[in-house]
Specification:
mainly alpha, two-stranded antiparallel ribbon, 10 helices, 2 strands, 82% helix, globular
Length: 291
Amino acid sequence: MLNRILSALVALPIVLVPLYLGGWYLAVFVWAMATLGCYEWVRLANDKNIIRDTAILSFVFAGTWLLLMQQSLELYNTALAIVAASVGVILLIFGRRLPTMLGAVLYILLPCLLLLILPAQLLGSFDTLLQNAGQESLATDVTRLFAFIFLLSIFVPVWLSDIGALALGKMIGGAKLAPSISPNKTWAGLGGAIVGANLLNLIALPIMLTAEPSDPSLWDLWLVCIIYATFIGLISQAGDLFMSSLKRKYGAKDTGAIMPGHGGLLDRIDGLLMVLLFLPLLYYVLAPLSQ
């Protein structure tokens, strides 16, 4: 447990600094994490060409991102088209290794691209709004802060859901959630994941009751935040179960050993990757509710 806590404390600033700086700092950081994730993925699948296949996947990610940069990051559909083209190439070339390479593109590269694309699209609109309002001098600083808050709104609920699942799962125990996939996961842990993801909403509740108890728009916003956080708690646990099923299939305890007490990178970001994959769908569902 001490190793887990120390590893988390060391990893936290490594993650938060590029999230705050954004731009190329964030892009290079995400590329490095995607490359390491792909390495663990092909290694887990007992791929005999680990270095070569990891390099190919890393090149696909970097090339896709650079092409999107040339397109001013305007369209999520552009990313999907490029990923689809990459899938087509993989179908033609990799044959027997197709499931491994295709899985890496869909489960690792696409979510990592979304981590860069979604904030860029949102912030492009926000930056234009500031400039139209005659606040050009504030655009850079305010946009960076807004981007950081947006990214934290994804990362923090995932982290809190993991903590909540671990805490309530150990404290309460009880019925197993999916014993054939992950014997240690319980329904209590799933409840803890939902509670953990909503921790900030629960903290905000007494403040709202005191400050604006009768403001319907504020309560509507709080409800949207509850749905958002609950979704993240559930999907992050689904991502955890997905990775557990793969490790069980290949007879591996962890995907790697980069973080003492935590295992590999994919062991730590499996829930985050799944959340990112479904995030556009969540925004599409919540957009009408937040207006």
